[in-house]
Predict the structure of Sugar kinase of the NBD/HSP70 family, may contain an N-terminal HTH domain.
Amino acid sequence: MSSTSEPPRDIFDAGGRGLQHHGLRRANERAVLTLVGFNPGVSNADIARLSGLAPQTVSAILSDIERAGLILRGDVLRGRRGQPATPIFMRGDGAFSIGCEIGWRHLDVLLVNLVGDVLGHFHLDYDYPDASTIFDVIADAVRDLVEELTLEQHARIGDFGVAMPTNLWSNLDLVDAPAEQVRLWRDVNVMAELNERTGFDVTLINDGNAACWAELIAFPRPRPGNFIYFMLSRYIAAGIVGEGTLWEGPTGNSANLGSMLVGDADGQPQVAHLVASITALERQLLAAGFTVGKGLVADWDWDSFGPVLEAWIESAAKALAKVVFNTTAVIESGLVVIDGIVPRPVLQRLVARLELELAALPIASYTPPQVLAGHLGPLAPAIGAAELPLFRRYFSRTLADLAG
């Protein structure tokens, strides 16, 4: 195959959407950045062909963003057909972002660079998120993570994304938090609290949407334009990508798939959260006499759980199959991605069982979607919280992001 052949089109490829009008210079810059960011080593000619921009326009834009410190040029590639090509890459230290997940029983804070490398990570387990202390803990973690950066690199931290369950305050009874925490979380302004303590602009993102976005970025080329995503954590976080767009909805909680009604072991209506989550498994383990630690779920003694674990995998797969069917009845998607805070072998067993449950659904006209295990595991929400603001700042060409 010729080295100049065009690769399969990825959902982040510009696809001729670059425009020549002078007033859309910023959109064109982002089209070029997107092609470089999601096609490492792409050449000037490749960018012009994939974006639909004139070669002279591409060259001018590349010069501008190179001066801004966002890209770098590799060694000239010689000995191939056509003119020698210079591969172009994103500069990892061109920008940095902080990602944070405030979970039901854990906190993750991390620092990523422009190419998505995780440069540092802080983790804390707790019984419930304490609104009276957690913001100071996050601020201390951020301070420790960025202290190794140079002054120039520190100035390139443009974003701080925070992933957490939507309306966390109204569901704190799920983790037996004291009643006073409901009032504290209901009245607190998370973005303002963290902005005051860190000085960074803060973006609040639903945890399922953040994790779904991180999964989209982590996919190898060509990335799927449509898929349904589940993060099986203490409860179920979920997200939907449709036609290359993260479906956040007006409140940022459009993919609250864990709240869909399924059925429990007795056939009674129950939300999927309480059937297919780690909390559901933990309750079954405790009822069977097992003791589980309060730290990382991955560190539990999974090999000892035997029939209890098998029963949970079966019930979780049955519940998720109903959620997937109901979702695909509204949103056409041929791919489901399952990730979680469980060990990888357990996740693979759940994926395999979900495939069986989908194939067994008694609907003649139904073609089950493909089911895959996610790429990132427990850190997906925090990684997505860092990556989504970076994308909006440097790559997105939606009108809202361009105006911002």
User: Anything to note?
Assistant: The chain has three domains: 22-90, 96-210+381-402, 220-374. Residues 306-328 form the longest helix (23 residues).
